[in-house]
Design goal:
Helix content is 33%, strand content 22%. With 251 residues, it is an alpha/beta fold.
């Protein structure tokens, strides 16, 4: 089928003009819409208390996102936990590290950050092997970082402090789009929760990441576009390659 319309399961970009999907739409005369399929909800502080995680037992905290930062300090405030001044913070990226300034004073000796990936972060963590790390995360998180910590013999504890939940998708007509684009397993689950009788038919499903692809297939969906790949490291590139081939065949 010739691709004319695409629904991206994410919020509309703040700078829409610079979005690669805008360039894709202009180049191939496509309609690209955005709609957030999932939302972040904090775990109630009483549930955190039930896990018996004592923040005072840890000398360092690992943050992989701003959401983790927000919900860590939210729980600390709700439970009146005094966060030690000498607690060290290891952040996935520089932007997360600077975001941390909303809660603590920035000091190089206690705040460390990678460039962007968990590999970058692990390089730094391995230089501090004697710390006892707390890893605040969501109930559905990638295993890359925990697996790497375990492999290196780093002492750490996972603490679930937020979760992803399905948004209400009743306002959108998903079947009117030629292609649906997903970036997380939670996005796939949101689609199926909102539309339990969903039938794919000729609709194209695009997924980013192995776990997203696996989740789609678990629900019986046929994934036509996968990213990243050597030829398409980004989702926008993967879509463009598919659109070129698909629309060429329909001429």
């Amino acid at each position: 089928m010739k691709i004319k319309s695409i629904l991206v399961s994410q919020p509309k970009p703040a700078d829409l003009e610079k979005s690669p999907y805008t360039k894709l739409a202009d180049k191939h005369k496509l309609t690209v819409d955005y709609f957030k399929f999932i939302k972040i909800e904090g775990i109630p502080s009483k549930d955190f208390r039930k896990a018996r995680t004592n923040v005072a037992d840890y000398s360092a905290v690992i943050f992989t996102s701003r959401q983790a930062v927000d919900h860590f300090f939210r729980i600390a405030k709700e439970l009146r936990i005094e966060v030690a001044e000498d607690l060290k913070y290891f952040c996935m990226s520089e932007s997360t590290a600077y975001y941390l300034q909303n809660y603590v004073q920035f000091r190089k000796r206690r705040i460390f950050h990678g460039e962007r990936t968990f590999h970058d972060l692990m390089t730094i963590i391995k230089k501090h092997p004697d710390e006892n790390y707390l890893f605040p995360c969501s109930e559905t998180h990638k295993q890359d970082l925990p697996d790497a910590l375990t492999k290196e013999g780093i002492t750490y504890t996972k603490a679930v402090i937020y979760k992803t939940a399905a948004c209400d998708l009743s306002k959108i007509a998903v079947k009117e789009y030629d292609m649906l684009v997903f970036f997380s397993p939670s996005g796939i689950k949101s689609l199926m929760k909102n539309f339990p009788d969903y039938e794919q038919g000729e609709q194209i499903i695009a997924t980013f990441g192995k776990t997203t692809t696996a989740t789609a297939k678990d629900f019986g969906l046929k994934v036509k576009i996968e990213a990243p790949t050597p030829k398409a490291p980004s989702m926008s590139m993967a879509i463009e390659n598919y659109v070129k081939e698909s629309n060429k065949r329909k001429r």
